[in-house]
Amino acid sequence: MKKELFDFLNTDLQFVKGVGPVLAARFEDVLGGRRVLDFMLHIPAYIRARGITENVSSSEPGEIITIPLLVKSHKPGGTFRGHRRPTQIICNDKMGNAVVIQFFNVNFLDYWLKKLPIGQWRMISGKLERGTRPTINHPDFIEEMQNADKIPSIQAIYPAGEGLTQKTFASVRDQIFNVLTDKITGETDSGVKEFFDALRRVHYPECAEDLSANSTYIVKLAYWELLAHQTAIVISRRNRKDVRNRRSVRQKKYDLVDKFYTILPFKMTGAQTQTINEIFADLAKNVPMMRLVQGDVGSGKTIVALAAAIKMTETGAQTALLAPTDTLAQQHYAKIKPLCDKLGIVCDVLTGRDKGTVRREKLVSLRSGRTKIVVGTHALFSEDVEYKDLGLVIVDEQHRFGVSQRESLRAKGNNPDLLALSATPIPRTLSMTIYGDMDVSIINEKPAGRLPIKTTKLPIGRIDELVSRLKIQIDAGAKVFWVCPLVEESEVSDLTAVQSRYEELKKIFPHAGLVHGQMDKKQRDKVMAEFADDKSDMKMLVATTVIEVGIDVPRATIIVIENAERFGLAALHQLRGRVGRGNLQSYCILVYGNNISEEGLKRLEVLTETEDGFVIAEQDLMMRGTGELLGTRQSGWINYHFVDYSRHRDLFKLAASAARDMSEPDAWVRDLMFVFDRGVGISA
Q: Which residue of 20, 485, 625, 626 has the fewest C-beta atoms within 10 A of its own C-beta?
């Protein structure tokens, strides 16, 4: 890949015309990054056809239409006797049928009236509603007749976020691919061209099939993504072998592990003990440990990780525990620090919130070696963070971190050991190909005293009855999660919006809290912390799936999941794991909609029948249909851009075989590894 193209892909989105720093930050929330490349890997979810018609009477309610209309009159909106009235633009189609265009935001009245002058024809595109007269609310496109071709006949619809419209996505896409055409001119590697040609096709789909998991373009991209990942695994495995005999085994200096076992207020399960023994055996070798611990929700992975950290502390070396969110880092710290204090081990927490003197003091303690165990977020591998002797890196919810991020932290030490934790069981049929560079331990027991979570299904028509029952439970001291799939009401979906549900529930539960992914992160963490506080009056938390990982509230004993039929099994299992974390009986209520499919009902039945995460993961892989579920990525697994676990199973083996057969990855494969953020860039 030419350096000119490489630099373009790394360009910050704020430098794309019309974006700027504010929109770039919003893009980052949706894309997980703010480079041009991050945008290119964020493909449309589906298409919206905008067929042209000249007669509104031939169209059905709910249909997206594009139609020429003659503006006849304006009826400005406003407030009348306490009621808001929309601005109405009265029009006629070419057959003389009346069509009303409505706008509910009166602050932009002058703008709309200027866009739709009386006596002029305009090409309008939007969703047709049937009231007393055919109506289009807030059209998606309004164009003068000579610019009608600006309205796409097929519109690619991107997964978006707050403050990002489909027009913004289309504008950024068009600019990026226009420049890309020039950048790949003269590119000598045909693989590079083929990759970007396939990527262009899915950003400019010509039909719905272009975006399906089985389309030629998606299958190509999925294979290349898996090849990049599998090649990274091969390189990682070879690098481990290269370290052999160049790393001396650490010698024990202190006696801490036996003391650790004596101060634990509970007895380890057999699975925990077995996993700890496997970790300790790895730590005694002259090859860096690369071990993945798969443990179901509530199986006690944190204590296993702490045992590994204390074993490392016995040698005088340091341990860094990397968590994906501030909230989860603080929760780990709150659990770990009291035990470390009893053992005389200095434990600290470091996140992006630490500033000034506080941060400097923590950095000095790490640099001197005084701090033996540090818990934190991405801040742990910031440039100014130095360790005296980093011996062990523990990565929690490891699927949320790319290889490059993981390696950035490992680079802070001299070939440190790596222990990765995953709360989402991976089907055994896939674990060896997904995590081929790691040894795998499984914790398949829950701590003693944990009661099975009672899971039931409930039709949405009985929601009032459910709320009444919850009121009784909350008055008795229970804490409740209520999960909804969307943030705001959508014209193209009947799924419950978390904001609307929150406003309804707050009338009954005045101290209810609200969290979702579009909130300011600090505010979201503050609400979560308040809900977790036993002394807080907040007994109900209404949320989207942001609570799927990273909040531990032992007193929470009830979770309601609305529109549960639209989630994958693994996501539902993760959400259910937010309760049942104490010794009290817990409940999960799966509320399903009126239009539930047979497949959706089958998924809910699996949840009611078993709590075994490995059984659920295997069932999820076999059953899930990407068209029906919210999102196409497998919750808790590696966040691939194009790979669908249920549709691309054969590609895993093909990619793994191809990667193993390469004695040394050629330039094109290394380019792929850069594209898919596997920690190998153009200079590798």
A: 20
